Amino acid sequence: MAAGLAVSASGAVPTDPVGVIRVDIPASTDALLAAPLQRPAVFSGRVSSVEENRVALEGTPGWAANALVYAQGSRPETWYCQLGSGALRGAFFTITANDASSLTLDLNGDTLAAVAAGDRVTVRPYWTLGTLFSAGNGFPGSPTFTPSAEVQFVDTTGIGINRVSSYRFFYYTGSSFGGAGWRRVGSPLNTKYDNTILYPDTPVRVRNGGAPVSLHHTGAVPMAGHRIQVGTLAADTAQDNFVAFSSAADLTLGTSGLVESGAVLGSPTFTPVDSVLLVDNAAPGLNKAFAGVYFYYTGTGFGGPGWRKQGGTLTRLYNDEVLSADAGLLIRKGRTLSPDGYWWKLAPGYVD
């Protein structure tokens, strides 16, 4: 179980336990954070039928038209539907329209062809900057427009490796330019970003520029697992994929399913085809190097197949290296002849 993560047996969703997660970040330190706990579900049920990007649900939830769709000024939440069983277990899709008993989804290039009647689904709002991070849960506020701490979005669309953050946000506590709220570095001072979505499969980097802080939040323990796409975006170009997995318990490289699912390709030699780069959020420092680079060796020499660490002893296995549930990680895909995608699929060991 992740450091600072505690789970209880009660929750807003009757079948889901509730957890509390705490992450301690030293002074003047970057931390790559995941938020595995989820916001409470407003619906749990089963699929009745599927037609292209529309999912009809059993029973009659009785929603008002487009009640689950973001509307600036009136509905600040953005909602998503997640599959909890079946071939697409763990997949989630933003809701773009709804009626009393069906959802229209943004498939973002995916397909619902494998979804079947009876598959379980949940509907819940995304975490946002305003709901996950605040002075109330330990995030340092900035009394001026010089950030005391930042939430930096990793670059998920740029081609290649070693890319810089795409957006930088900070929480302004002052009264000028519209008052307290989330601001984005480089944007007009009176524009707020409290409703900016934090996707469950993507980590964020927190840059703590001041004294040590403890961040904490409460949420539902994820039960569906995850289905995360990784891959390359350009021919003959290695690609960094920042990911966050959905589990209330830590994994290890050996139990991660990264190789078994095909998300990470094995290496027949000690020159990695694909690599997994792990962070140490407890280690102090800004712009830190990754704590370790790991690859899966498929050969028979030096002790046979298993996870190895770049720079480590060739005969030592690293199958027990921990993937912290509250930390992001990076999957570095090797070069491919053309852009290609792979799925990391895994259900947590604590669910059936």
Note down, in words, how this protein is organized.
This protein has about 350 residues and is mostly beta strands. Among the domains are: about 25-35 and about 130-215, no CATH class; about 45-125, Elongation Factor Tu (Ef-tu), domain 3. The protein contains one helix and 25 strands. The protein has one helix at about 130, and strands spanning about 5-10, 20-25, 30-35, 45-50, 55, 80-85, 90-100, 100-105, 120-125, 125-130, 150-155, 165-170, 180-185, 195-200, 205-210, 215-220, 225-230, 240-245, 250, 275-280, 290-295, 305-310, 320-325, 330-335, 340-345. Strands 4-5-8-7-6-9 form a six-stranded antiparallel barrel. Strands 3-15-11-12-13 form a five-stranded antiparallel sheet, with no helix packed on it. Strands 18-24-20-21-22 form a five-stranded antiparallel sheet, with no helix packed on it. A hairpin with an 8-residue loop joins strand 12 and strand 13. The radius of gyration is 21 Å and the shape is globular. The two termini are about 20 Å apart.
